[in-house]
Amino acid sequence: AEDFSSGLARQHENYCLAVTFRRAPLLGIGFGNMHDWPIRAWGAFALKGYITHNEILWLLTKTGAVGFFFFLFFLNLIVLQGASISRQLRDPYLRALCVMMTLAILNQLVVSYVDMQLTYYRNMIYLGILTGMIPTLPIVEKKEQGELAWRRKAFEEC
User: Fold this and answer.
1) Considering just the CA atoms, what is the radius of gyration of the chain in Å?
2) Assessment of whether the complete model's pTM goes beyond 0.70
3) Is-contact 46 2, C-beta < 8 A?
4) Given 1, 66, 90, 116, which is the most exposed site by the fewest CB atoms within 10 A?
5) For the purposes of burial, counting CB atoms within 10 Å of the CB of 77, is it exposed (0-12), middle (13-18) or buried (19 or more)?
6) CA atoms of 34 and 120, how far apart (whole Å)
């Protein structure tokens, strides 16, 4: 019964978001504004009119088609950059790390479709760290190669 009511509440949230999206499809309703409730629901969650479980549809409703396009464009650029960098890297450990980071970013979007992931600070800190680490991997690889060459040269001189 608990799973059924939870699923029903999520379907209700999706319906409310779809109705709200029809009101402002291009620019959205903005953050901090409560979405519409054509059918009243009950529950104890204090932010139920502001945050929903389906955060992909929630983001589309809040930012509209324009903001949602730029959000997905930004994330796709990060994923493309991760794929490009992983092909350039020679070190198998750094390459695996780059692939893991890229897949974790995609995974964050997939999970955001069914649960609150884009509004939890821990998830966003993790996503931000991964996003910032991807472009640094070629620098790390060059630095490691330079240190190895320096150590090899110092060892040969001894």
Assistant:
1) 22
2) yes
3) no
4) 1
5) exposed
6) 19
